[in-house]
Automatic annotation (TrEMBL):
<dbReference type="InterPro" id="IPR025669">
    <property type="entry name" value="AAA_dom"/>
</dbReference>
<dbReference type="InterPro" id="IPR027417">
    <property type="entry name" value="P-loop_NTPase"/>
</dbReference>
<dbReference type="InterPro" id="IPR050678">
    <property type="entry name" value="DNA_Partitioning_ATPase"/>
</dbReference>
<feature type="domain" description="AAA">
    <location>
        <begin position="8"/>
        <end position="182"/>
    </location>
</feature>
<protein>
    <submittedName>
        <fullName>Chromosome partitioning protein ParA</fullName>
    </submittedName>
</protein>
<dbReference type="Pfam" id="PF13614">
    <property type="entry name" value="AAA_31"/>
</dbReference>
């Protein structure tokens, strides 16, 4: 059954590590919240970095996405408030490390997150799901739960190879478990103004044209410092280039994807 689309459910996925995936999930969610959009960030990555970047350590809460996926805990029971009025978080847990194996034993295992999210989605305008840097069952759950996928892509030589793998996985999910799944867009991250970055960016824009967001996220020291202070970039250094680019990305997302019933 399709959930009534009052919210945009957006999964951030790339099986390649170090491409700015969690940075994008956290700072996009925070920027949407700063625009007074009710936003829920769900951390499905066993590393729990999305939570710690918002000042909530991975195992300080007994209720996490692990209990939701494996023990049928209602998603609302795992929601934590953050420093930002319009941003809530469902934290990860170290137990997620073994969740791939545990989920493999469960019937309809790829739908566990979707069922949980659908029950709560109408309370939010945006639901952002941060997946692990792999294409296992946790990421599969993120893709099945979503209406759209945002793919962060570092402007480097091997970027296009990694992108091909993600797109192939999205096609497989569309064919089997989630026919409505769309690629919401590719975000160019960690951009340095040099020849290689420019070449890769040009190549990606040429190949994927309208699927690439206009906003480019620069390589930015303040952006890399913010998580160690337990803050999204807009609470750490609002005037930094990194912060301004994520605020711009959030504006682009809200203009592209207006949740029905939400005010854009």
């Amino acid at each position: 059954m399709e959930v009534e689309s009052m919210s945009r459910i957006l999964t951030i996925a790339n099986q390649k590590g170090g491409v700015g995936k969690t940075t994008t999930a956290v700072n996009l969610a925070a920027s949407l919240a700063a625009a007074e959009r009710r936003t829920l960030l769900i951390d499905v990555d066993p590393q729990g970095n999305a939570g710690s970047a918002l000042g909530i350590r991975r195992d300080e809460s007994e209720k996490s996405i692990y209990e939701v996926l494996l023990d049928d805990l209602p998603l609302g029971d795992a929601v934590r408030k953050t420093e930002l009025k319009f941003l809530d978080l469902v934290p990860a847990s170290r137990h997620l490390v073994g969740a791939e194996l545990e989920l493999a034993e469960i019937d309809r295992r790829e739908y566990r997150l979707k069922q949980a999210v659908d029950s709560l989605a109408s309370s939010y305008e945006y639901v952002v799901i941060d997946c692990p840097p792999s294409l296992g069952l946790l990421t599969l759950n993120g893709l099945v739960a979503a209406q759209g996928v945002m793919i962060p892509l570092q402007c480097e030589y091997y970027a296009l190879e990694g992108l091909a793998d993600v797109l192939k996985t999205i096609e497989l999910v569309r064919a089997s478990a989630n026919p409505g799944l769309k690629v919401d867009g590719i975000v160019l991250t960690m951009f340095s103004p040099n020849n290689l970055s420019n070449q890769v960016a040009d190549e990606i824009r040429k190949t994927f044209s309208k699927q690439v967001f206009n906003t480019v996220i620069p390589r930015n020291v303040r952006l890399s410092e913010a998580p160690s202070h337990g803050k999204p970039i807009l609470l750490y250094d609002v005037s930094s280039k990194g912060c301004q680019s994520y605020l711009e990305l959030a504006r682009e997302v809200t203009s592209r994807f207006r949740p029905a019933g939400g005010v854009a």
